[in-house]
Amino acid sequence: MDKGFFYSANEYYKELFGCKVYKIALNLGTTCPTRDGTKDRRGCIFCSNAGSGDFAFSDLERAKSLVSKKIKSGEKKYLAYFQSFTNTYGQTPEEEKKLVEKYKAVLEDSEIVGIVIGTRPDSISDWILAEIGKIAEKHYVSIELGFQTSNVKTSEYIRRHFSNQDYFDAIKRIKATNQNIHVVTHLIFGLPFETEADMLDSVKTAIKAQTDGIKIALLHVLKNTDLATDFHKGKFSVMDKEEYFEILGKALSIIPKNIVIHRLTGDGPKNQLIAPLWTANKKDVMNSMNKYFSDNGIFQGSENS
């Protein structure tokens, strides 16, 4: 395993904005092609009813007030993170126009320094991408693509409903529109039936696609999901803490230092979490992970997001 630092999101944002930047998770009220009947009606197998936006708010000022309580001193700068469901997905041209209006509206707030748009590779029309490209000429813009895995069988099991080529094409289209758009790829480790080789192949695929950033999360089993049904039937088990940290270390050893690591942990809502329960204590997870990284020469005091 190569030794050394990785490029954390906090470092990246400090270089861009000169200070720590806080994300505000927002819900635009969108849906998803795997929920509205376009490709499915059940959603991804692991996804909660909130569309992976369990901590997102519909009101900007309320979200800002809650986040600001964590800021002890200094200038307040925020990124508006459109997190829930698929935030470039409008079922009609009129709905797409409303989404763009909402992107622009939050940027009128002087404390909002940019926007982060969570979406799917197969749900970005040429029109909305062109509009996002225009916004990126004057403001920081990041597009986060839910990719999760490069394993085709796994992608079918989790009901992803887009191909690996769709993912490659999406990054190519985004970069052709505006090179300033920062592309982040979401991956999930510990998906049912996946091996270590599968997880590392997903990382290698994201690198090959020329993503600018990577988010890695451990699989969470949440209540009222089809994934929970399979878990209770004993079809798969979840990773323990040591397993997860070990595979993270191996992933970081192959990720080029110019790729920003936006996340290495994830925490589902405690009232919905079934497994793994060790993830419920976020402070303990972070302390344990940092110690593991320090002991193994991977992480030496540099903050991560």
Structure characterization notes:
The structure is a single chain. The chain is an alpha/beta fold and 305 residues long. It is 36% helix and 17% strand. The longest helix is centred in the first third of the chain and has 14 residues, at 93-106. The two termini are 22 Å apart. Residues 300-305 have low confidence and may be disordered.
Summarize the structure in short.
The protein is an alpha/beta fold. It is 36% helix and 17% strand.
Q: Which descriptors would you attach to this protein?
A:
305 residues; alpha/beta; 10 strands; disordered C terminus
Helix/strand/pairing category: alpha/beta
- Terminal CA distance: 22 Å
Calculate Rg over CA atoms. 18 Å
Assess the beta-strand content as a share of residues: 15-25%
Number of helices: 10
Average pLDDT metric: 91
H-E string: EHEHEHEHEHHEHEEHHEEH
Shape: globular
Count of beta strands: 10
What summary fits the major beta sheet? Answer: 8 strands, parallel
Strand order, sheet with most strands: 1-9-7-6-5-4-3-2
**Helix content percent band:** 25-40%
Low-confidence stretches: 300-305
